[in-house]
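During the no-cost extension, the postdoctoral fellow (Dr. R.K.) reprocessed legacy sequence entries with the updated structure-token encoder. One reprocessed record is reproduced below for audit purposes.
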Amino acid sequence: MAKRLNPRQEKFVREYVKTGNGTQAYAKAGYSASTKPQKSGAGGSATNAASRLLASDSVKDAIVAHRLRTMTRHDYTIDTILNELEDGRQLARATAQPSAAVSASIGKARLLGMIVDRKESGAPGEFAALDTVKAILEAARKELGNEAVIALARLVGEPVTIEATPEPSGEDE
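Re-encoded structure tokens follow.
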């Protein structure tokens, strides 16, 4: 179960939901942008600290809850977004603007998960040396997190055990 956030973490969540930028949210929440190294050897930059906060289960849960409250308050659902995109697509077709119609169609497909934007990560060939499913899953866990690995393991029919990852501790996080 995720622990309760302190006031600074709550402000971080609100700022992150507004901007989508962890470093900016970290600064606006009142954290100092320390450059001293952390105990783990990782750098102490605001970007690194914000990344650690965003990896915390408590913060992730708070971000999802905040977004759901906002969507509920504004009665904004996937259906309303799809309807708006369809209205725009129909208007674009009626006014002979095919690129706008295509953009609306692509927006609908993304929203429904039919198009997934992918991002390369890691060095070229980094995964090439991984020769077992277990090694691939472990590398994916480090890169994408436990939820992604559980989904990937289910897809390939591989049993997976996930160790709990410790949450950042201390008032500054």
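The chain has eight helices and no strands. Residues 164-173 have pLDDT under 50 and may be disordered. The remaining legacy entries will be reprocessed before the final report is submitted.
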